Amino acid sequence: MPQYKHFPLPDVGEGLTEAEILNWHVKPGDEVTVNQIIVEIETAKAAVELPCPYAGVVTELLADAGQTLDVGTPIITIDIDPNGAAAPAPAPVVEQPGGACPADAVAANAAARAQADAVNGSGKIGEEMPGGRIATLVGYGPRSTAAKRRPRKGAAAPAPEPVAVAAAPVVAPISPEPITPVVVEQQVTGLVPLAKPPVRKLAKDLGVDLRGLTGSGPDGVITREDVSLAASAPTPVAAAAAAPASYDAGTRERRVPIKGVRKATAQAMVDSAFTAPHVTEFLTIDVTPMMELRARLKGTPEFRDVKLTPLAFAAKAVCLAARRTPDVNATWDAASNEIVFKDYVHLGIAAATPRGLVVPKVRDADSMSLRELCVALEELTTTARNGKTSPADMANGTFTITNIGVFGIDTGTPIINPGESAILAFGAIRDMPWVVDGQVVPRKVCQLALSFDHRVVDGQQGSQFLADVGALMADPSVAITY
């Protein structure tokens, strides 16, 4: 007989409570295997691909792309015994006015719960579950309350006549309250459109409905060119999606929900700005010697195949300077009333991505050579821009650099990342007049701005650290004295 398993949305980060369904990679009727990627979700920290914990046949997708769900909410139903002997399914019960149900539905409910209890057991990681499966993936344990299905979003285009499909009962093993199977109005709309997060954002900005497009990329993936073509062509698809649902033609305003990375970033910045007393200091330096060294190194075999950027020099300078001023690499622990000094540097690099601002970390950056830093920074930025940075790669940083110079900005007053004590803004490198040996000559000049938590870092310590970073960038040969 069919055996249905419900896959609940797991916590893929550190205490995350919700996530948005970005894209389904399967549809009802598809066969799936254990660890096959079935869905891509977006949390407050990153976009994550989820593997399937079961092998079987997909019977129902319980959430739509674009829907935000609480951790623990079932998102897909899988029949793990599709070739078993068929058995009469429990009669679906349509909710009656006032909540009353026919008498025969009570018996159907009892049978449905008994069947679900036999196949939907859940347990702690490592424990054997009904059917012999071992719980292995994080977040698959039972919830303390009954799971609730959120209403599906309506399709923008006219849909075929809805087909009534009896939903498999959703069971919360530790909840004593009975759960009634209901009739779900399932809209047969075909495949969920396949598109990467940057393409989805472009489509949203241009008002293009991805469900009306046919992808020209591999395996039917919708590309930026497909979206741009649909937006510019006077077709019914483009006309139907000329303006987002949240656009008010009268006020000419567009409203975008605050969620995902933007929501998390906003909360973190508010918490930091109003918790840590910020102090910001500025330093203008001549980096001509550093740029000359960069030009020489790029011609050597060791650096010929890597991207040697000024940011790599700044990262190396920060790691060296932190040895002399470890306070900038410490953490204020209010819970234990302690300052925690770190004997390592997990260097965060603020990166602007299509999903918003993320700060992935270079682990143990202080133990890396300049070449190793170059490789790590290139991998980090490429992964971030592709929206593939995992939550683990953005946790537990000790110091951050924000490279505002790539946008042509000279300086700013950056906000410290929560859990850290300092952040360095690295401004644009420009040709400017500079006094050398009493003569005004053109030099390569940039500005640095250091914001630090005055609870941890005193003015003298912050000034010393910033001066050390500046000296190392102005004359890299100073590094041999550290």
Would you kindly provide a written description of the structure presented here, covering whatever features stand out?
The structure is a single chain. With 482 residues, the protein is α+β, with helices and mostly antiparallel strands. The chain is 23% helix and 23% strand. Strands 13, 16, 17, 18, 19, 20, 21 and 22 form an 8-stranded mixed sheet that branches. A 4-stranded antiparallel sheet has the order 1-8-6-3, with no helix packed on it. A hairpin with a 4-residue loop joins strand 11 (247-248) and strand 12. Helix 2 runs parallel beside helix 3 (224-232), helix 7 crosses helix 8 (370-385) and helix 7 packs across helix 9. The relative contact order is 0.10.
Quick overview of this protein structure:
The protein is an alpha+beta fold.
Biggest sheet features: 8 strands, mixed
Domain module count: 3
β-strand percent reads: 15-25%
Number of helices: 9
Computed Rg: 28 Å
CATH superfamily of the largest domain: Chloramphenicol acetyltransferase-like domain
Which oligomerization state do the chains in this entry correspond to?
Answer: single chain
At CATH's second level, what is the architecture of the largest domain? 2-Layer Sandwich
What CATH calls the topology of the largest domain is Chloramphenicol Acetyltransferase
Silhouette: elongated
User: Portion of residues in helices?
Assistant: 10-25%
Quickly name the level 1 CATH class of the largest domain. Answer: Alpha Beta
Count all strands and give the number: 22
Instruction: Tell me the distance between the termini.
Output: 71 Å
Which structural category do the helix and sheet elements fall into? alpha+beta
Mean pLDDT: 77
Uncertain regions: pLDDT < 50 for 5+ in a row? 86-191, 234-245
